[in-house]
Amino acid sequence: MESGGGFSNEPSVFGEDEKSAGNRIVLIAAVAALGGLLFGFDSAVINGAVKAIEQDFEVKGAVLGFAVASALLGAAAGAMTAGRIADRIGRLRVMQIAAVLFFASAVITGLAPEIVTLVFGRIVGGLGVGIASVIAPAYIAETSPARIRGRLGSLQQLAIVLGIFLALLVDYVLAELAGGANQPLWFGLDAWRWMFLSMAIPAVVYGVLATTIPESPRFLVATHRIPEARKVLTLLFGEKNLDITITRIQESLEGDTKPSWRDLKGPGGKVYPIVWVGLLLSVFQQFVGINVIFYYSNMLWQAVGFEESQSFQISVFTSVVNIATTIVAIMLVDKVGRKPLLMVGSAGMTVTLATMAVCFSTATEGRNAAGEVVPHLDGAWGPIALVAANLFVVFFGMSWGPVVWVLLGEMFPNRIRGAALSLAAAGQWAANWLITVSFPELADLSLVFAYAMYAGFALLSLFFVSRYVKETKGMSLEDMDAAAGIAHPKSPA
Predict the structure, then answer these.
(1) With 0-12 CB in 10 A as exposed, 13-18 as middle and 19+ as buried, what is 352?
(2) What are phi and psi of 189, to 5 degrees?
(3) For a surface tag, which of 97, 212, 287, 492 has the fewest beta carbons within 10 Å of its beta carbon?
(4) What is the pLDDT of residues 242-298, one digit of tens each?
(5) Of the CATH numbers 1.10.8.60, 3.40.640.10, 1.20.1250.20, 1.20.120.80, which one belongs to the domain with range 1-258?
(6) Banded pLDDT at 3 (limits 50, 70, 90)
(7) Contact predicate 90/222, CB 8 Å
(8) What pTM, to 2 d.p., does this model score?
C-alpha cells in the first residue's frame, strides 16, 4: 500500500553504484517492511477472537461488525497524515511511532474489560496500520537503487501476507493450548486476549530494529543535514557520483510541491478520468469481499459445521495459500502484465464466489455448541465451499491483491501522483470498512446473498478492467502523462 502525504514520487533521485552493498540495502528494506508484517498481523489477529468476543461481550450483528472494522477508521486517519508527519520529523521517527501504537493496541485490546475499550484499542492499532501502509513503501523507494526498487518494494506486500499468516498461526496455537479461544490460558486470561497481547512482541522488535537503519537521505537533504546525507548515501550506494546524487536530490526538492486535492482537476474543473480509474480499482479490490475471509473465516467455518480447531487450521492454510500466490504475482507481473492478471483474477473470483453462494443455498439449519441456530452444509457441500474459498484467495492473491498497488504506484502522472494516491488509499480504507462492518448483518440475513453480491462485484470488476484499465508494463513514468491525457504544467495545452 502507498499513499501521498508529501513524499516525492519521482522515479529516481539517487545515482546508482553497481558495486554498492546489495545485501545491506535488502536488509534495510526488510526492516522497513516489518511495518507491513505488523499491518497484516493487526488486521488478521481478530479472526480467532471474533466468536469469543461475541460471546464474552454479548454483541452481535452491526456492533460486532463495527468492533472488527474499527481498526480501519484509525487506518484511514493514519494513512492520510503519516506522510506530512514524516516530512517534519523523519521516516524513522514515524516508524517508531507506529511501533508504539501497535504495542499500545496489543495491551488495550488484550485487557479490554468491555466492547468500547476494545474498539478504542482497535482504532489505536489502526492508526499504526495506516502509518505503516505509507511509511514502509515510501522509505524503501527512497533508499533503494532504481534497478531493484520494484523487487524491494514488493517486500511490503509479502510482509503483509506473512503477517496475516503469523497472526492466524498464533491464533490457532493459543486456542489449541487453551482448549478453545474462550478458555483461560495464562494468568487467568482467555486465549483470545493473548491473541491480541501477542502483537506486542513484533511491535517491540519493529521499534528496536527501526533504530538500526539509516534515515532516508532524501529527508536529510530536505532538512539541510548534508553531511549526514553524504554518510547515508555512501553506506547505501558507495562514493561514486556522490556529489551528483546530492545535487539531483536538491534539484528534485526545489520542484516539489505538497499534494493537493486541486491537482486532481483538469483545466475544465473536472476530475481527471485516471483518478476515477485508480479510485475504482481500490474500491473493487475490497468489494469482492477478500477481508471477509481473513477477518471472519473462523466464525464462518464454525457456523457451517467445522469444529473450532478445524476452523483455525483452515484459516492458517488459507493464509499460506495467500503467501504462495502473492509470490507468484511478484514473479509474473513484469512478464505477463498488469491487465491480464487482473482479468484472470476477476474471472476466477466471479466463479469461486458464485460457487460459494450456491453451496450456502443448500444449507440446512442446525445448532452449534453454544446452542445457536446456524446454517449447516451437508454432504459434499462443505468441502466444495472450502475449496471454492481457497481458490478465491488464489485468484485474488495472484491478481487484485498485489497488482492493484503496483498499478496505483505507477499509473498516475508525477504531477498528481501524491494527491491521487491519497484519494485511492482513502477509498480503499473506506471500502474495506464498509465490507467488514456489514458482513455480520449480511450473514444473519443471508450468506447466499452476501456471496452472490461479492460475485457480482467481481464480475463488474472484469468489465471495468477490460474497458478502462490500460496496461502499464514496460512504460516509463514519463510516459504516464500522455497515457492519462494530462499535459505538463509547462507544456502547451
Answers:
(1) buried
(2) -95, 135
(3) 492
(4) 666 677 666 655 655 555 667 677 677 788 888 899 899 989 999 998 877 766 666
(5) 1.20.1250.20
(6) very low
(7) no
(8) 0.70
